[in-house]
Write a structure and sequence with these properties.
Layout: H1 2-16, E1 21-28, E2 35-37, E3 43-50, E4 57-66, E5 69-73, E6 77-78, E7 85-86, E8 97-106, E9 118-122, E10 134-137, E11 149-157, E12 161-171, E13 173-178, E14 181-182, E15 199-205, E16 213-222, H2 224-227, E17 244-253, E18 258-262, E19 268-270, E20 274-278, E21 282-286, E22 307-310, E23 317-319, E24 325-332, E25 335-338, E26 344-360, E27 367-373, E28 375-376, E29 382-383, E30 393-397, E31 404-406, E32 413-422, E33 432-439, E34 445-449, H3 452-468, E35 469-470, E36 472-473, H4 486-499, H5 503-515, H6 543-555, H7 558-577, H8 611-632, H9 636-657, H10 669-677, H11 683-699, H12 711-720, H13 724-732, H14 740-744, H15 779-788, E37 790-792, E38 801-804, E39 814-821, E40 824-833, E41 836-843, E42 848-854, E43 862-863, E44 866-867, E45 874-880, E46 883-888, E47 891-898, E48 914-918, E49 925-931, E50 934-939, E51 942-948, E52 955-958, E53 963-968, E54 974-981, E55 984-990
Parallel strand pairs: 2-9, 15-23, 21-30, 38-42
Antiparallel strand pairs: 1-3, 3-7, 4-5, 4-6, 4-8, 8-9, 10-22, 11-16, 11-19, 12-15, 12-17, 13-14, 13-16, 17-18, 20-21, 24-33, 25-26, 26-31, 26-32, 26-33, 27-30, 27-32, 28-29, 34-39, 35-36, 37-38, 39-40, 40-41, 41-47, 42-46, 43-44, 43-47, 45-46, 48-49, 48-55, 49-50, 50-51, 51-52, 52-53, 53-54, ...
Helix pairs in contact: 4-6, 4-15, 5-6, 5-7, 6-7, 7-8, 8-9, 8-10, 10-11, 10-12, 12-13, 12-15
């Protein structure tokens, strides 16, 4: 009876409760409750949560307070803006903690309640706020091993503490602790920037760590990027030869007074357990040398040395803009085994970036030594040749005091396998745990489909990003490189914005791009550690224009264009200055890096694209993006100037690189892809160029031949010009070169080369062969934006105005994706069943969407069982190229429709009938014939009907699950077939 009463009570409550409108997910500068903001006008974002469809915000009100005192109230503002709304109150104060709330009005006449409070804490807004002095050790350093340096200070806080905050940075990498407890959960701080121009500091709330009475703070500093080995040829000390610390603690007491504890000559210095630490080579930790309790108030530092104050400037100090590096996923040992060479190896099952946390038990002086590698060789042995000179080794020396736990501090490794060289006694799987480290970007995107290999590809793309978004977008995380290569970053930037929230990540890094520009030219790597001569390569330097625009599209953040605009102009200006009659045909360029180059190439199959043709395409593209940015920022004079420049660049391209018949002088996939994607060709030449691209792909038996610069746009261009079927064939190609070849070879991340491991199990060139190198993962952008169709209109960037236009094909029966936008979760998925298609769509509140439903007609298109023409909340915009187009607002929708006739596979059986000779196999012949109007395959007296794979020309499935793909020559005639089933594959030539 009680349960029944509760049910009726609940139903009654629901019936009288008004419709809900809420506000949640409050962000300040794209962060949740950030500590350490140095923007004097921070921007606020929030999400509307509504139980009604088509909900739009019509007004908002924000209030900000400090210590319960109001500092700003916006009043009711009539606006639909809920993202990046700037603070407009009185001046904010350094180190102060502010609270804010928001409420909204919607187009249904409702007003929300006030949101739950959010907060933000300011950094130091003026260099005069820094009272601390830079300090360095006072002892003579071991200049060979350069052990980590330990700094400490004891101090008293004799009154009741209400709050405390710490500002810390270093020349080198640091970790801090107070009273023996670690400060924060950030690693590899202060991160990597162009240190001489921009050095980040971190801000921590340390209130829980302090005690009334005696306290102590300890800071340990390692070489890090500041003076450690970077790049090649034993290059080190790039930013300075001496490590240092700058720290300042602000303590606020209950009586209203404040105290500042800062680095000065009263601190002490020494060494400790970290005897050696280098990013490339690893770390050595000797537990016998650790000074137990060294960061506590009871520690006796009488034998420690003093410190030296240094007159280093505070001018380059900036707050931390992006999410710091943190620990994330952990992995237990998947398998422990002995290799043919007798090596003891642990397999963690995933190529990751981070380190291994290890337990050990032994006597004083016993050692644990771990080496790290990505792959095993053909024989199953531990393989480290591709690490070049990087030692990637962790060494631990035991103190002998029971069970001891070890992990590194100032290094990281790229690995799946760990070789245990030294270990006292027998080790167990539970003694080893791998932990992934990467910037604390929030996961935002998901993708799944009916194809297991494509799902694994998506996994690999995301793990490639995790491993290489380690404060800067590195090219690889394992060998002696790990640099912020600009070409990789720009190629992958749009895909990156689907997988994780990278707005702040790139905003921070782009500031270093601007800081390190050399007369407008952008370095190959940022931060630039290669010198002034390493800059200006097309497709690499264009990171200065491509990434800001991609971030603007993905997040609707105009500030990134404002911040980077002068950098964008400087790069375009560099190209213009170095061109002759607007033709940029000089200087060094990497070109289409790692494009298809078969060995022993005697017939010109290598896909070599003229580097200056590539340069001219990127010249045009960057000029176009600069025009776009100028329009957004209202710079009308620049719009005119650079529009004129753009036309001249295109005219120069046409004159130099296009024949009278419209053929490009480099007839490669990359050449046509760049010319088409960047609209360098006049419209009357584009379709025939697309036809040449499609023919080129077919000529390589549906394989790509593109490198770093052509690959990101290849499938986009094919789909744009009506060749989605070929794009799908490329996506699903399993032979080298292809996206799925590494997947089938067991990859768990994206490889640097299409054939990093060759079909025979041998390796590509060891000196340039990373197995975690994210650039080719740029196909993820096509999977999200074209395959599933999640996109944003440029009139409403950041998914304010959404476009969902899926492209069904490739034999997939379903595909879906979701994306956490600043407005809320956006998702779409399609499923094919017989001649019916279903689409499930979620649109966040305060946005609108155009939905392209692959449907035969409006009349048979339903939403939740009702005709769409009968629903007021759905506006029918018309029919277009096999789609029914509707416009709608927020809500969850379920569409069902009959498939358009043109989407159903039609084929002529006579195209395929015949005998196909198979060489080098127990099967000598495959016969294709017709029976009862069906295609039938006959193999060794066994026959089976073939069903066409939907949306995919020339591909069929057998009743046993095998697939047959027919291959046509350049005249369109079927000349070969490929039969695949299980682990077998046969190729036959038509007789």
């Amino acid at each position: 009876m009680r349960n029944l009463f509760f049910l009726f009570s609940s139903l009654f409550f629901v019936s009288i409760c008004p419709a809900q409108l809420k506000v949640q997910n409050l962000l300040t500068e794209n962060l949740s409750n950030p500590v350490g903001i140095d923007s004097k006008q921070p921007r606020f974002s929030w999400q509307l949560i509504s139980d009604k469809r088509n909900t739009l915000q019509t007004a908002y009100e924000i209030k900000v307070s400090v210590d319960k005192n109001a500092v700003w109230s916006s009043g009711k503002v009539s606006s639909d803006q809920s993202v990046q709304v700037p603070y407009k109150g009185s001046s904010l104060q350094s180190a102060k903690k502010y609270q804010w709330q928001v409420r909204v009005w919607d187009n249904k006449g409702r007003v929300s309640g006030w949101s739950n409070p959010a907060f933000f804490q300011m950094a130091l807004l003026d260099k005069a706020d820094w009272k601390a002095k830079w300090i360095e050790v006072g002892y003579a350093e071991d200049s060979i091993n350069r052990p980590a340096q330990y700094f400490r200070k004891q101090f008293s806080a004799n009154k009741k503490i209400t709050s405390a905050i710490a500002f810390i940075t270093a020349h080198g990498m640091y970790e801090a602790s107070i009273n023996g407890k670690r400060v924060g959960d950030y690693y590899l701080t202060p991160g990597w920037t162009s240190y001489n121009k921009r050095l980040q500091y971190q801000v921590y709330d340390i209130t829980p760590l302090l005690e009334r009475g005696k306290n102590a703070i300890g800071i340990v500093v390692g070489n890090g990027w500041y003076r450690g080995f970077l790049a090649w040829e034993n290059s080190k000390d790039i930013y300075g030869k001496r490590l240092g610390v700058l720290a300042q603690l602000h303590i606020r007491y209950a009586d209203g007074s404040e105290e500042i504890i800062s680095t000065d000559n009263s601190w002490k210095s020494s060494t400790g357990g970290i005897r050696y630490a280098e990013i490339y080579h690893g770390e050595t930790y000797d537990a016998r040398e650790e000074k137990k309790g060294w960061s506590t108030a009871t520690f006796n530092d009488a034998e420690w040395s003093g410190v030296k104050e240094q007159a280093s400037s505070h001018d380059n100090l900036v707050a931390t803009y992006n999410e710091p590096v943190k620990k994330h996923e952990t992995f237990k040992a998947l398998k422990i085994f002995t290799t043919p060479k007798g090596e003891r190896v642990i397999d963690f099952g995933q190529n990751l970036v981070g380190w291994v946390m290890v337990k050990g038990r032994g006597k004083t002086g016993d050692k644990i030594t771990l080496q790290h590698a990505e792959v095993l060789d053909k024989a199953g042995n531990f393989y480290i040749e591709n690490l070049r000179v990087a030692k990637a080794t962790a060494r631990y020396i035991l103190s002998g005091n029971g069970e001891e736990n070890f992990e590194p501090h100032f290094t990281f490794y790229g690995f799946r396998y760990v070789k245990v060289v030294d270990y006292p006694g027998e080790f167990k799987p539970e003694d080893f745990t791998a932990v992934a480290l990467y910037s604390d970007m929030k996961p935002t995107g998901s993708f799944t489909s009916s194809h297991p290999l494509i799902n694994q590809l998506q996994h690999n793309i995301q793990w490639g990003q995790r491993g290489n978004f380690l404060d800067v977008p590195t090219d690889c995380p394992q060998r002696d490189e790990r640099l912020g290569w600009t070409g990789d970053a720009q190629a992958f930037s749009r895909t990156a914005a689907f997988n994780f929230g990278v707005n702040n990540f790139f905003a921070k890094w782009l500031k270093d791009v601007a800081a390190d520009q050399i007369n407008g030219s952008v370095p190959f790597v940022v931060p630039n550690v290669l010198g002034s001569g390493s800059a200006g390569s097309a497709g690499w330097a264009d990171a200065a224009t491509i990434i800001p625009w991609n971030m603007y599209l993905a997040y609707g953040d105009k500030k990134i264009l404002e911040d980077q605009y002068e950098s964008m102009k400087a790069w375009v200006g560099f190209m213009e200055k170095n061109s002759t009659n607007f033709l940029w045909n000089r200087g060094f360029h990497f070109g289409d890096w790692l494009f298809y180059r078969p060995f022993d190439d005697n017939d010109g199959r290598s896909a070599v694209t003229d580097k200056y043709l590539i340069a001219q395409c990127f010249f045009a593209h960057s000029a176009q993006l600069l025009v776009n940015a100028a329009k957004v920022l209202g710079k009308s004079e620049d719009v005119s100037t650079y529009s004129n420049l753009l036309q001249k660049v295109k005219d120069a391209f046409l004159k130099e690189y296009v024949t009278g018949n419209g053929r490009l002088v480099s007839s490669t996939q990359t050449a046509y892809v760049l010319a088409l994607n960047f609209d360098v060709l006049p419209e009357n030449l584009r379709q025939q160029a697309a036809q040449r691209l499609a023919d080129n792909v077919r000529n390589y038996n549906n394989h790509l031949t593109t490198g770093f610069l052509g690959t990101p746009y290849l499938c986009h261009v094919l789909s744009r010009f009506g060749y989605t079927d070929i794009a799908y064939k490329l996506l699903l190609q399993e032979d080298y070169p292809s996206w799925l070849y590494p997947v089938k070879m067991g990859a768990t991340t994206i490889w640097e080369r299409w054939d990093g491991i060759k079909p025979d199990g041998t390796f590509q060139t060891p000196t340039m062969n990373s197995y975690n190198h994210y650039a080719y993962g740029a196909i993820g952008d096509w999977m999200y934006r074209v395959m599933v169709g999640l996109d944003t209109h440029e009139e409403g960037v950041g998914y304010k105005q959404i476009k969902i236009k899926p492209h069904i094909g490739g034999g997939f029966t379903n595909a879906s994706a979701s994306l956490k936008t600043y407005y809320g979760t956006l998702s779409s998925g399609w499923k094919v069943e017989a001649d019916k298609i279903t689409m499930d769509v979620e649109i966040p509140a305060n946005t609108t969407a155009s939905i392209y439903i692959p449907a035969a007609d409006v009349a048979t298109t339903m939403e939740a069982g009702k005709s769409i023409s009968s629903l007021k909340e759905i506006s029918i915009a018309g029919k277009e190229e096999g789609y029914v187009v509707v416009k709608l607002g927020s809500g969850i929708y379920h569409f069902e429709a009959s498939r358009p006739a043109e989407a159903r596979v039609k084929f002529n059986p006579a195209d395929y009938v015949g005998n196909y000779k198979v060489e080098g196999s127990t099967i000598s012949n495959i016969e294709i014939k017709t029976q009862n109007d069906k295609l039938v395959a006959v193999v060794m007296n066994n026959s089976g009907e073939l069903e066409p794979i939907r949306d995919t020309k020339d591909q069929f499935t057998g009743t046993d699950g095998s697939t047959i793909s027919f291959i046509r020559d350049d005249k369109g005639k079927v000349v070969k077939l490929k039969l695949e089933g299980g682990w077998t594959m046969f190729e036959g030539v038509r007789q």
